[in-house]
Amino acid sequence: MAPSGLLVAHTKSVDDTRALAAEVAVLARAGDIVLLAGDLGTGKTAFTQGFARGLGVVEQVTSPTFTLVRPYRGRLGLLHADIYRLDHLREVSDLGLIEQLEDLAAVCCMEWGDLAEPVLPPDFLEVRLEYTDADDERRVVFRTVGTGWAARRTVLARAVDRWLAEPAG
Ligand SMILES: Nc1ncnc2c1ncn2[C@@H]1O[C@H](COP(=O)(O)OP(=O)(O)OP(=O)(O)O)[C@@H](O)[C@H]1O
Ligand SMILES: [Mg+2]
User: Fold this and answer.
1) What local confidence, expressed as pLDDT, does residue 34 receive?
2) DSSP letters spanning 47-92
3) pLDDT of residue 136
4) One-character DSSP codes across 90-120
5) N or C end of the chain, less CB within 10 A?
6) Alpha carbon of residue 11 to chain centroid
7) Buried b (16+ CB within 10 A) or exposed e, 61-81
8) How far is CA 8 from CA 40, 69, 108, 111, 138, in A?
9) Residues in contact with ligand 1 (CB, 6 Å cut-off)
10) The pTM is what?
11) Mean pLDDT by 10 residues, the chain (169 residues)
12) What per-residue confidence (pLDDT) applies to 1?
C-alpha cells in the first residue's frame, strides 16, 4: 500500500478485470458500498460482473443504465446501481437502499458512484478505472474511505497482489 492509501492495479483484458473484481468480492461484507468511477467504457460494468461472480451470483449481470438498480442473489445480495443519470441518484436515496444494505445482507456496486460521494456515508471502497496507452489495458485504482474498508487494506492488497505490478513495456 502506497503512503497515499491508494492501490494501483493493471488489467490486460475485460476478463482480467472481472477476475480482479472477483478477488475483491471475496472480502465483501453486508453493508459494503463499492463506488465505481471512470470514463465511459472503462469497465465499470465489467468490474461489477466479476464482483458478482466472486459473490457467487450465477445470474448474468447486465448494465442497469435504464433501470435504477438491479438486485442479484449470491453469498450476499448485490445491488447494482448506475447513477449516470443523476436523477437516478435521487431515486436511490429516496428508496433508502443504502441505509438498508446491512439489513438486506447486501452489497452495493454503484457505477458513477463518485458523483454520489457527497451524499453517501463516508465508508466505502472507490474503484477508479482508467484507460492506458494499450487498448485492452486498464489502470484500476483502489481508494478506501472510512474505517470499514481501511481495516481491510492489508487483505485487499493481498487479494489484488498479482495485478499490482506495472505492466511490461
Ligand atoms: N482491461 C479491460 N477491462 C475492462 N474492460 C475492458 C478492458 N479492455 C477492454 N475492455 C472493454 O471495455 C469495455 C468496458 O465496458 P463496460 O460496459 O464494462 O464499461 P463501463 O465503464 O461500464 O461503461 P459505461 O460508462 O457506459 O457504463 C468492454 O467493451 C470491454 O470489452
Ligand atoms: Mg456500465
Assistant:
1) 97
2) HHHHHHHHTT--SPP---TTSSEEEEESSSEEEEEE-SSHHHHHHH
3) 97
4) HHHHHHTHHHHTTTTTEEEEEETGGGGGGGS
5) C
6) 15
7) bebbeeebbbebebebbbbbb
8) 20, 28, 22, 19, 10
9) 11, 13-14, 16-17, 38, 40-46, 63, 111, 136-138
10) 0.94
11) 75 98 98 97 98 97 79 95 81 83 94 90 96 97 94 95 76
12) 46
Q: Supply the pLDDT for residue 129.
A: 98
Nearest CA to 64 out of 38, 45, 36, 40 is that of 45
Q: What is the pLDDT of residue 166?
A: 66
Q: How far apart are CA 118 and CA 163, in angstroms?
A: 30
The CA distance from 69 to 82, in Å, is 7
List, in sequence order, every residue forming a beta bridge with 33; answer none if it has no partner. 108
Amino acid identity, position 124? F
15 alpha carbon, closest ligand: 1
Taking the C-alpha atoms of 32, 33, 36 and 37 in order, what is their torsion angle to the nearest 10 degrees?
-130
Give the number of the atom of ligand 1 that is nearest the alpha carbon of residue 16: 1
What pLDDT score was predicted for residue 2? 47
